Amino acid sequence: MTPEIAIMGHPNEGKSSVLSTLAEDDSVRVSPTPGETTRCRTFPVVIDGREVLRFTDTPGFQNPGRVLTMLNRLSGDSGDIIRQFREQARTIPELSDDRELLLPVERGAGIIYVVDGSRPVRNVDREEMEILRLTGRPRMAIINCKDEDDAFLQSWKDEFRKTFNANRVFNAHRATYAERILLLTALQSIDQDWQPVIGQVIAAFQRDWTARNRATADHIITMLGDCLRHRLTVEAGEETADRGREEELVRQFNRSLAEMERRTHDKIRGLFKHHIFDYRLPPRSILHEDLFNERTWQVLGLSKKQLAIIGGLSGAAVGAGLDAAHAGLSMGVYAALGGAIGALGAIIGGETVSANASFMGIKLGGQQLQIGPVNSINLLLVLLNRALLFYSHTINWAHGRRDYDKAGAPAGPAPDQMGFTRNWSPARIRICNAFFKALQQEGGGDALQAESDLRHLLEEVLLEISQQE
Ligand SMILES: Nc1nc2c(ncn2[C@@H]2O[C@H](COP(=O)(O)OP(=O)(O)OP(=O)(O)O)[C@@H](O)[C@H]2O)c(=O)[nH]1
Ligand SMILES: [Mg+2]
Fold first, then answer.
1. Residue 368 to residue 237: CA distance in whole angstroms
2. Is the CB of 13 under 6 A from ligand 1?
3. Distance from the CA of 123 to the center of ligand 2, in angstroms?
4. H/E/C letters for each residue in 405-451?
5. Could you say which ligand is closest to the alpha carbon of residue 399?
6. Distance 31 CA to ligand 1 centre (A)
7. Which helix H or strand E contains 51, and what residues bound it?
8. Nearest residue by C-alpha to atom 21 in ligand 1
9. Among 157, 165, 87, 158, which residue's Cα sits nearest to residue 132?
């Protein structure tokens, strides 16, 4: 039978938020108004088409004192007194929430009790805990500090020791993948019968996460290939001398790349089950900058030292465009437009085309104009870093979190002002470079090897990011 865990507690303490984060379900109703949840709702955790675990969201206790008095008058085993209570409360309207919230317990669910640890323990809390003790079900307490304040943490823990098999601090708004796994691991210990099945759930969670990382790596590699091979070739007609038109084409080219990037980010976001809410990136994230702007390229491209490593490898092929883009040199209107026209390898204007050997032999008749493919490894690094930053923000945005306005710290250093690749070893940079070279040679050389090396590198990096606190 699929194990069921009921999330219980006082109104407005963050039960639904904890559930939303644990089950990775952003459709759970969360609201600042106490009493938001009035009916039990079950959220299955489905992995590989199989329901491995279900969480049930419950309303908050309304009259714990009265419920406790009634329970104390009943006799029988713990399972039966809950059934009897629910029977007796059927005709008492003010007990409807309390009756409803004990439904999963009557079915045999285990219990996660959620409290807001940023306030002191009160008598009603003790009554609720006593009710849960009387149910005799395996139970664990979760301290979800809604404020940063942890002054009351210890008194909560002391209290919990009396009534719960385990307790954990778990922040519904900030819990990461690693913390979700830790919480499940702790859940294993509260009931011996659960150990094997929760163990399977944890293994399934981990396999699922690995599969998502693999899919993320695939999406990133596809995007890099598409963007770095992209070219725009147009019939230029008579008016090619018109600079405005050239600029428009560069913009169009940049827009296509930005669009490919956006679609890739959307796919990553979908893999991590952020469907409904448009969660925010931290306010000062470098991701708010355009893909093609000087700052993005400076911050997320290769460092000078890394440049030297690659330069030594591939010599002149790195291209003047790279140096120019890297140094952030102003390149007039193109720099303003797109960061690096040199890096775009643009060939502009009918007359110049015929003189340019790198026109790839495409003959469209009349005057032609081709922009791309980009011949700078920095585009690869910039796209890669942005995808990794996006991934990192996505996996760390807990599903229970809905307070966009408070997203990110208002002060202090911006969270992601540097790309991941800045700290990478020369070996990793060489893997990127080999993939870049293979793209430039249109699949020549060891293209398959280069792609497989990059895939392994990305899977390793994604796992590193998931395990960060
Ligand atoms: N800052 C912060 N706010 C939180 C946290 N957890 C919950 N909240 C907020 O607290 C309010 C109540 O959260 P819910 O998850 O709806 O609480 P609940 O216990 O399900 O409430 P009821 O269904 O009304 O009993 C919401 O506005 C949440 O966004 C947290 O960890 N940090
Ligand atoms: Mg709720």
1. 8
2. yes
3. 21
4. HHCCCCCCCCCCCCCHHHHCCHHHHHHHHHHHHHHHCCCCCCHHHHH
5. 1
6. 6
7. strand 50-57
8. 12
9. 165
Segment holding 114, helix H or strand E:
strand 110-115
Task: State both tokens at 73.
Answer: 């008058």
Q: Are strands 110-115 and 139-143 parallel, antiparallel or unpaired?
A: parallel
Residue with tokens 């307490």: 141
Produce one character per residue of 63-80: b if its CB has 16 or more CB atoms within 10 Å, e if not: bbeebbebbeeeeeeeee
| Residue 113 Cα to ligand 2 middle (Å) | 12
pLDDT of residue 311: 63
Beta pairing class for 4-9 and 50-57: parallel
Distance 100 CA to ligand 1 centre (A): 20
Residue 293, pLDDT score: 75
**Is 460 a pocket residue for ligand 1 (Cβ < 6 Å)?**
no
> pLDDT digits over 84-98, tens only?
999 999 999 999 999
As a whole number of Å, the CA-based R_g of the chain is 29
Q: Residue-wise over 400-431: b if at least 16 C-beta within 10 A, else e?
A: bbbeeeebeeeeeeebbeebbbeebeeebbbb
Q: Which residues pair with 9 in a beta bridge?
A: 114
- pLDDT bracket for residue 330 (50, 70, 90): very low
Place of tokens 């796919």: 267
To test the ligand 1 pocket, which listed residue (13, 15, 17) has its Cβ within 8 A of the most ligand atoms?
A: 17
Query: Ligand 1 pocket, 144 CB below 6 A?
Result: yes
- For residues 196 and 308, give the distance between their C-alpha atoms in angstroms, rounded to a whole number: 53
Question: How remote is the CA of residue 18 from the centroid of ligand 2, in Å?
Answer: 9
**Position of tokens 């120019």?**
324
Residue 411: predicted pLDDT: 40
Residues with CB under 5 A from ligand 2 (ion): 15-16, 36-37
Nearest CA owner, ligand 1 atom 11: 32
Placement of tokens 């007039």 in the chain: 332
Domain boundaries, the chain: 4-190, 209-467
Ligand 1 atom closest to Cα of residue 29? 16
The one-character DSSP state at 136 is T
Indicate which atom in ligand 1 lies nearest the CA of residue 171.
31
Q: Which atom of ligand 1 lies closest to the CA of 402?
A: 29
Residue 117, ligand 1, Cβ within 6 A: no
Percentage of the chain lying above the pLDDT 70 cut? 78
Q: What is the pLDDT of residues 370-396, one digit of tens each?
A: 677 777 788 899 999 999 999 988 888
CATH architecture group of domain 4-190: 3-Layer(aba) Sandwich (3.40)
**What span, in angstroms and rounded, lies between the C-alpha atoms of 297 and 290?**
10
For residue 144, the CA-to-ligand 2 centroid distance in Å is 14
